[in-house]
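User: Some background: our group keeps a shared notebook of sequences we're curious about, and every so often someone picks one and asks for a predicted structure to add to the entry. Today it's my turn. The entry only has the sequence so far, pasted here. Could you supply the structure so I can complete it?
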Amino acid sequence: MAILITICARGGSKGIPGKNIKKLNGIPLIAYTIYVAKAFVALHDGIIAISTDSVEIKKAAAEFGINTNYTRPAHLATDAAGKVDAIKDLVFHEEKVNQITFEYVLDLDVTSPLRTIDDLNLAFDALKADGGANNLFSVSNAARNPYFNMVEKKLDGYYGLCKKLDSVILSRQAAPKVYDINGSFYFYNRSFFDSDFNSVLTDNTLIHVIEHMCFDLDHPIDFEFMEYLLANNKLDFEMESEV
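Assistant: Of course. Here's the predicted structure to add to the notebook entry:
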């Protein structure tokens, strides 16, 4: 069962400059993703590949054992470029280079590293067990709910709930369950990339709920907060480390 593990890391970053290789508790951020990718490959028949337009990121990945001759095309390295298209280009490249057709693709997001090998194994098992699913991605339980305490502007200029049901929801517990996409990992059936999908949201998408702490690094304060958690052993789970 051949699986491609993709690590996509653009050189440009406006929110946190150089964040993909910025030191987090003493090691480059990308290393945390490489560690768990290697742990997953040790359990499954897989290949790890990196997609980047940055020489510096290539060098940083090489220091942790991931080398590549692939450079992400410029049109897939802009702020407007979609992640799915970037992954697809890497999939086709790796299949050509390795003379193989993968069965599954696992994309690990560098900027959302709070994941475990158990998360990945459980999610992978769920995707394989569902014959109709196109893909699966990780989520966290949402702090806000569009049926109860999230509002949006209406056409008349006033504000109301983002989503409404026939009956009024009087408590958060009574509202339909919703989730935050935490961006940590995405599994795909290989056939996903032979379709016209340009989003991870399809009619046949599964989720894996990460019950432990998990969040994306979007702003400098997020980086500082994660640094504090790692440096002071405040995480509620164990992360993979270099063996």
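Suggested note for the entry: Strands lie at 3-8, 23-24, 27-28, 46-51, 104-109, 135-141, 151-153, 159-161, 179-189, 205-209. The first strand starts at residue 3 and ends at 8.
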